[in-house]
Amino acid sequence: MKITGVTQHHVEHAMDEPFHPTWIPGYPQATHEAELFEIETDAGITGLAASPSFAGGLDYEDQLSYFLLGEDPHNVEGILRKLEGFNLVGPRPWHVEHALWDIIGKDAGKPVYELLGAESREIPVYASTGQVIDADERVDYVQERVSEGYEAVKLRITEPEHTEIVRAVRDAFPELTLMVDANKGWAVRVMDEERQWSFAEALTVARELEEIGGIGWLEEPLPRHDFEGYARLREATDVPIAGGEFNNGAWQLREHLTHDSLDVLQPDAALATGIKRATEIAAMARQHGVTFVPHTWTNGLGFVANLHVMTAAGSPWCEFSIDPPWTPAVRDCFLTETIDHEDGIITAPEGPGLGVELDRNQITDE
After folding, report:
1. Residues 6 or more apart from 200 whose CB is under 8 A from it?
2. Using one digit for the tens of pLDDT, what is the confidence trace for 152-162?
3. Which residues pair with 264 in a beta bridge?
4. Where in this protein does the record put region Disordered (predicted)?
């Protein structure tokens, strides 16, 4: 089997109202944007992949073709080595590998998690927010999520004083597991510069969260390459420290493990690793006693790819992004079906490959 074509589509989906993600400081996001790729083969099988994007899009169909045309999609390791070269000169290409697994699974008639040596399993979801919202509104939000079956919620904070939001939610829900995301690992600086925390501020927040109690983890309180700072913070607090979602490539994630930087490793298979490297990093994390819970906040195809990885890796939680106007329907806007949980539990699609199909009515450039 050979790859014969690469087709790219820019997908743009309007949200009901502006969304204010902490990772794009000061920016009112009105649309969900993605770059969607179809990798075609001479066997008539097409694999799907998608990356996050932004207004106007980012066109690299031709450049990817130079690296992929004529390759056997079953040669995942060989193509990954070529994509490492692409990573030097172009956008991060790790999402492209998802299409290879989609092709291989469709060819074999098996879901990706089965190709990775796993069987279907139920994974608890945690509701993942993306905005800083005042305490009263967050309490109402959490009440909705609890009524839907969630047993954990991740709250966003960007300043040390925002721990008052966490405390208010804890007071309202004494038994609920709470994760806290500071979003200091990275940012898209379109409008404003985000304010980084000093080590002392990160430690102050961690100590405050210790007092609040029931904290699943404190996520990305420091820049993503500050391996030594993370190690110092981890040593100084009882709150589990999480990160690694946007570190570029397996070697940066190995640095986190080598430095004993994290309790929870979160590489996104669409942003940081691809599927094969994600399972390899998960195995390394297990050997180091580190929990593996990938970041999933990209799009429907990225979410599904991570869900297959989590199934194979034995992850104890699945990040489920929901913070209206960002909803599962927005995330999965170009798929024929919205992927949802059932009473707080989710399983990977059982169809061959990634197990999802495109809604071509949403692909406006055709």
Report:
1. none
2. 999 999 999 99
3. 242, 291
4. 345-366
